[in-house]
Write a structure and sequence with these properties.
The structure is a homodimer.
Chain A (H helix, E strand, L loop, with lengths): L7 H17 L6 H8 L3 H4 L6 H25 L6 H18 L1 H8 L7 H27 L8 H13 L1 H4 L8 H15 L4
Helix pairs in contact in A: 1-2, 1-6, 4-5, 4-6, 4-7, 5-6, 5-7, 5-8, 5-10, 7-8
Chain B binds a DNA duplex through helix 3.
Organism (chains A, B): Gordonia prachuapensis
Protein name (chains A, B): TetR/AcrR family transcriptional regulator
Keywords (chains A, B): DNA-binding, Transcription, Transcription regulation
DNA sequence: TCTTTTGCCTACCAAGTGTTAGACTAACAC
DNA sequence: GTGTTAGTCTAACACTTGGTAGGCAAAAGA
């Protein structure tokens, strides 16, 4: 058994654990809960993962990777270097991720501190990379002179977190479609960097 | 022992529990953890509270009450009925609350779902009242014709949640003072309702 | 003074926790 | 066929969980 191993069962465990962690929280989800939902016994879980923390990290790393990757893809498709377009694209991918991958988002937006020290540091670093992307964009917007912001750092947090919160309330069956949601958020973000 | 009872020890238990819930989470804080931090044994906790859930609800209700109350106070001091001033005041009190009462904020911004069904419903109702206050303000802004917003409901969530998130990152020792923070957020919120 | 209440204690309970040991079966490699 | 591996199982370990029973000392009320 290696870490990278991906079998049918281990993948099913991952999916199930992700769901349960997102719904009930990491602490109140037991190995036996996960195993039962997959149709095996608790002990068999340990054939696929070394510990409960390992699967948490495994899922967290994946989720952070997906978020970063979706932004990198969008970034690559960006033509020209108009920073406002980058801002729009960044917000768009953020909204889509948090609305579509709500369980993954719930994981990375909440208790990272259940991870071991190294893994926690790793997660914080990955999240920091992502945050820095937005900080650079906002700074570039301001640098054009055509936009202004009361404080770059705080504005970045505000944009990041109003986006992240989508995962906690968005309902695909609700009154707002994903398309509407992305354009609403794009507009809000653009307004936030509007000249004073 | 009644619910409303407030003694020295029970107050100390409340404070300690609030801290531990905010730091470690409700699930991973045991009655014995709380008791030990207060200097009593686990069993003595039950002299002051009927159950673990009771103290969670007790703290949650207080925190929601404090938030609502601080807004009601600010609202009462509002002169004139310029809705933009109300928006500024609402954001201001929200920022101050989430920056100063970070532990209380952490409690109400996370797992309300550990509450019993009735208490959960109560908490959601209280939060709903608070949210509706902002919704009314934003709607009033739009109604003047001098402001516009892509979508009232979503904008309300965005403002509410960028504010709530302050509790997770704000550091009083950090580079931004509370005064600066409030004016940054006021400005951001005002921009968000700027005419399109 | 006697009685009640307050506030804490020790000791316990039943259930659940993450995790390990060791055995078994089925499939695959040679 | 033989050896190895994957994947599961039962059983257990040591410990923690929320909560209870009942007792004991000090204070308060009569």
């Amino acid at each position: 058994m290696t870490d990278a191993r991906v079998t049918q069962t281990s993948e099913q465990i991952r999916r199930t654990a992700l769901d349960l962690f997102a719904t009930d929280g990491y602490d109140s989800t037991s190995i036996r809960d996960i195993a039962a939902a997959v149709g095996i016994r608790g002990a068999s879980f340990y054939h696929h993962f070394r510990s409960k923390e390992e699967i948490l990290w495994n899922l967290t790393e994946r989720a952070l990777g997906q978020l970063a990757e979706s932004w990198q893809r969008a970034k690559a498709e960006l033509s020209g270097d108009e920073p406002l377009e980058a801002l729009r694209a960044f917000v768009r991918t953020g909204v889509v991720f948090h609305a579509e991958q709500r369980t993954e988002a719930a994981l990375i937006n909440s208790r990272l501190n259940r991870l071991s020290d190294e893994h926690y540091a790793g997660a914080v670093a990955l999240r920091g990379d992502y945050e820095r992307e937005l900080a650079d964009i906002v700074a570039a917007c301001v640098a054009t002179g055509r936009h202004a912001v009361p404080d770059v750092r705080v504005t970045v947090y505000a944009i990041l977190q109003m986006t992240a919160a989508i995962a906690t309330w968005y309902d695909p069956e609700g009154p707002t479609t994903l398309d509407e949601l992305t354009s609403i958020y794009e507009e809000l973000a653009v307004k936030m960097v509007a000249p004073a």
